[in-house]
Design goal:
Blueprint (H helix, E strand, L loop, with lengths): L10 H12 L7 E4 L9 H16 L3 E6 L9 H13 L8 E3 L4 H13 L3 E4 L3 H8 L16 H13 L8 E4 L14 E5 L13 E3 L1 H11 L4 E5 L6 H10 L7 E5 L3 E2 L6 H9 L14 H7 L3 H11 L7 E2 L1 H15 L2 E2 L1 E2 L2 E6 L8 E6 L9 E6 L2 E5 L19 E4 L4 E9 L5 E9 L16 E2 L2 E2 L4 E8 L23 E9 L11 E4 L3 E5 L9 E7 L4 H9 L1
Parallel strand pairs: 1-2, 2-3, 8-9, 10-11, 12-25, 14-20, 18-21, 23-27
Antiparallel strand pairs: 4-5, 5-6, 6-7, 13-24, 14-17, 15-16, 17-22, 18-19, 19-20, 23-24, 25-26, 26-27
Length: 560
């Protein structure tokens, strides 16, 4: 590829272009996405996926999907399969480049032996609490373990016996011998291996010692020939250890670690540990709850992969962490769905309307546009009969002066239909409005009125005889504060009104066969998706993806 005139979109692309010009990696660009299968991926991972696979696509390279499966205490096969689904949903394919760190256990063990033989690693008998005490603080240096000066022979013997299962869990660890006075805490003789008798989803019971991430990750990168190891900023302080490992073992190549700012969204959290707690405590229904910022959750809610990729593109690649307004993601969703979503009419809180002068046995098929943004989507027929439903909020007995919907003695136009006038209001024994009696003007079809009178209000509606009943779930922000990630007691800020379930919604008949995962714009309501878990042909469930109001677009207009 010709890179001579290529303009970098961010600082990582600048590094890659310079590396290609200098032939640093033999003209290769190999990236990787290395998730730990200890939970479901979230929106922050989506940015990393888009970046790593996107860089490989742009520079004619390859991107590996590698599972960092070195801790059997937290990892499950369920998470492995979920991660694969998420990556594919975003539109990326790893081809034959699927790897597992667990497949390198034997090689990692050999590299650990190499460090011991070089006098750069030792077996330590200190407990986990004692190791923390000896480690020091940010302002005080650590101190050497009393076991630090064991001989190479003794360390080799003990480490091999650790592998053989001779010692109890937690009784010994293998540590790198670096510098207990280093200002970087990660360099104060970090633990490389621990004893942990647990069944591994991939290697079974073959191992009772498992390598730590900071030892596994650089070696895995090197074994796979990774050229640019793209990480989020929290790994910046780990880079000296990443480089130290690669400098001191005989790996086949030297990848370069580069850090970028992760994607943080307002009113949500992107910590797998905290997400798991929300699931376990029952604040949400599971990892795929549509209120969560997990990829499974936003997919079930109805967000599109195109919108997520658009968000990642808009946010860009930076060196400083920041909080992205949730409204920006919602804007990307609206921008995508506005062009593609078929329109439909749905009454979420029905109010019965009887059109008294409309013949009881008459049904008209009115022409309705499927999407005004795309004429190629054509139109559909919507049935009109004597009894219809409108939204409760589209009627007021005593409206304010500029109210443009239905009220006693006032007129509105039915979407795609006639002008109707409210003649009478029926109430129940509690004084609640339960029905309106109206008349229609048969000469007002098509948007005109024969006498030229202006009817400004337009309401959507559904024919009662033809209506499809459905459950509709209205989602709001999961948290009541903008940045719950900063709150220690974040669960206390869970929004008690984050979900409202409407049971008896009335939809136009064209939605009767709506397939799970399909999306629509309910006119005047927002964008909705058929739930992929709970919706059934005889029991439809729709999730509100996002409302119609676009606050982010208004912010952009003001800033422009």
């Amino acid at each position: 590829m010709d890179i001579s005139n290529m303009q970098p979109a961010n600082f990582i692309e600048s590094i890659i272009i310079e590396d290609l010009k200098s032939d640093k990696h033999g003209g290769r660009v190999v990236t990787r996405f290395p998730p730990e299968p200890n939970g479901y991926l979230h929106i922050g991972h989506a940015k990393s996926i888009c970046l790593n696979f996107g860089l490989a696509e742009k520079f004619n390279g390859t991107c590996h999907l590698r599972f960092d499966d070195t801790d059997p205490a937290k990892e499950e096969l369920e998470y492995v399969e979920a991660i694969k689904r998420d990556v594919k949903w975003l539109g990326f394919d790893w081809g034959d480049k699927l790897y597992h760190a667990a497949d390198y256990f034997e090689q990692l063990y050999d590299y650990a032996i190499e460090l011991i033989e070089k006098g750069l690693a030792y077996v330590d008998d200190l407990s986990a609490e004692e190791i923390r005490e000896y480690r020091g603080t940010l302002t005080e240096p650590g101190k050497n373990s009393p076991y630090r000066e064991r001989s190479i022979e003794e360390n080799l013997d003990l480490f091999k016996r650790m592998r053989a299962g001779e010692f109890p869990d937690g009784s010994r660890v293998l540590r790198a011998k670096i510098d207990m006075t280093s200002p970087n805490m990660n360099m104060r003789d970090p633990v490389l291996y621990r004893i942990k008798r647990m069944h591994h989803h991939r290697t079974g019971d073959d191992w009772c010692i498992y390598p730590m991430y900071d030892f596994t990750h650089p070696i895995s990168d090197a074994l796979e020939g990774i050229t640019h190891s793209i990480c989020t900023l929290e790994f910046e302080d780990h880079r000296p250890l990443y480089d130290w490992v690669l400098e001191n073992v005989s790996v086949p190549c030297r990848p370069q670690q580069i850090e970028f700012a992760r994607l943080n969204l307002s009113y949500t959290i992107t910590s797998k540990r905290r997400l798991l707690r929300l699931v376990e405590l029952g604040y949400v229904t599971g990892w795929d709850d549509p209120r969560l910022a997990t990829i499974a959750g936003i997919r079930r809610r109805g967000y599109t992969p195109e919108a997520v990729r658009d968000l990642c593109e808009r946010v860009g690649v930076a060196k400083n962490n920041s909080l992205v307004d949730m409204a920006m993601l919602e804007h990307c969703v609206r921008d995508d769905l506005n062009k593609r979503a078929p329109r439909a009419m749905a009454v979420l809180r029905p109010l019965r309307v009887v059109i008294e002068n409309y013949p009881e046995d008459k049904v008209e098929e009115l022409e309705a546009v499927n999407n005004p943004e795309d004429a190629s989507m054509g139109s559909r027929k919507v049935p009109l009969s004597r009894v219809i439903y409108i939204e409760q909020e589209d009627f007021m007995e005593d409206p304010p002066r500029r109210y443009r919907r239905l009220a006693p003695g006032r007129e509105v136009r039915l979407r795609y239909g006639y002008v109707i006038k409210c003649e009478d209001v029926i109430k129940d024994e509690n004084g609640q409005v339960v029905e309106l009696r109206c008349t229609y003007d048969p000469d007002t079809l098509g948007g005109s009125t024969p006498d030229g009178r202006k009817v400004r209000g337009i309401v959507h509606w559904v024919s009662a005889r033809h209506a499809v009943k459905a459950e509709v779930r209205l989602y709001d922000r999961l948290f009541t504060i903008e940045n719950p990630a900063d709150a220690e007691d974040y669960v206390s800020y869970v929004n008690p009104n984050s979900l409202e379930v409407l049971k008896d919604c009335m939809l136009e008949p064209s939605l009767a066969q709506a397939a799970p995962g399909s999306f629509y714009q309910f006119e005047r309501q927002g964008y909705f998706c058929v739930d992929t878990v709970d919706s059934k042909p005889d029991s439809l469930v729709f999730n509100r993806i996002v409302a119609l109001r676009d606050t982010w677009a208004k912010i952009q207009q003001r800033q422009g």
